[in-house]
């Protein structure tokens, strides 16, 4: 890609990142929607010579850029969650009940249904499983309108589970969607590998035992452990180091969060764990230290600004590619998969996991039925799906790769427009219901 084009895209993204959020706050229009439309308009115009937007040719670039974007988003999500979690405290396990249900029930159902649908529509079993794994995780990048806004600062005497829950217990929808997105981006990896193994090593009987032991369990444990260890160590230094020069929290040095992100991801990948899970765990561990300190908000602000720039640049390019040949391989099968995912599979899988199909005022997750419906519906797809497809296609040359790119792009665009348009009115309606119930 010509250097001048890179500067132009970066400049547009920076300008729009600064201008759009305050303008769109009162409307049912999100910045991702605007950027995607703008990109589509640009794609219809003559493009500079040498600008290659073919996802197969530029797969390594797509993988690295989306990888960085997801990592930044995961660190931001980890820092934003105010509800603590402790492995040894049953109350915190119960407080995260909706998250566990979405991960353990909704995500596997989504993978299985999309994989079976893809196979039934004519994909190879391996490509169908990869498609299910790619489209299953919700996205921590594009779901800002339905996620928690950022860390709240508490007084030290309020730093316990009950007081922290009071911050977000009335908005179980935002907490559930945020925590789900933070965890399932890492949990998609085992199923991506399953698709690769199915293509390379043959029937599951040849590899299933090793896959369960290492890809499904071992790498998850390693990733979480590394993230917690790095987060704990950096928090000790930043907040409680014996020498004042090392207590970065007192100095308000925000670059610690970027150092934590890169160190955690690098160390986790070196030892063989899932780096995405490690970064999320590191963010949560940092947040657990000195909850009343304003340094958390400082770190989150840096991450949020960096994330916004990356997201807008990616969406601008995605929109440009969509009207410049990316969707050319799309056929009716891809349309069926994309619409089924957004309108049927995710909503039903979410309802099953949350008990939203039951009638009653309160569900097993302490949500109302309306809240469960909203949580099930807002399974936003985005940058994470682009990363996983680039990653999986880089490990094995799937004959259906161009069709996979077109289908995933359509699903992301559909999610951006549908969820982006409905997020503001739906969340306002839920808040109004809670206010009436509390009155």
Brief characterization of the structure:
With 439 residues, the chain is mainly alpha-helical. The chain has helices spanning 3-24, 31-44, 59-80, 90-95, 97-120, 125-135, 161-168, 172-187, 189-200, 208-240, 248-251, 256-271, 275-288, 295-326, 332-354, 369-377, 383-395, 401-438.
Overview of the structural elements:
The protein is mainly α and 439 residues long. It has a single domain, classed as Na+/H+ antiporter like fold (Up-down Bundle). The protein has 18 helices and no strands. It has helices at residues 3-24, 31-44, 59-80, 90-95, 97-120, 125-135, 161-168, 172-187, 189-200, 208-240, 248-251, 256-271, 275-288, 295-326, 332-354, 369-377, 383-395, 401-438. Helix 3 packs antiparallel against helix 14, helix 6 (125-135) packs antiparallel against helix 9 (189-200) and helix 8 (172-187) packs antiparallel against helix 13. The radius of gyration is 21 Å and the shape is globular.
Layout of SSEs?
Elements: H1 3-24, H2 31-44, H3 59-80, H4 90-95, H5 97-120, H6 125-135, H7 161-168, H8 172-187, H9 189-200, H10 208-240, H11 248-251, H12 256-271, H13 275-288, H14 295-326, H15 332-354, H16 369-377, H17 383-395, H18 401-438
Helix pairs in contact: 1-14, 2-14, 3-8, 3-13, 3-14, 3-17, 5-6, 5-8, 5-15, 6-9, 6-17, 6-18, 8-13, 8-16, 9-10, 10-12, 10-13, 12-13, 14-18, 15-16, 15-18, 16-18, 17-18
CATH class: Mainly Alpha
Number of helices: 18
Mean pLDDT: 85
CATH names the topology as: Na+/H+ antiporter like fold
* Shape field: globular
Strand/helix succession? HHHHHHHHHHHHHHHHHH
Global Rg: 21 Å
Q: What fraction of residues sit in β-strands?
A: under 5%
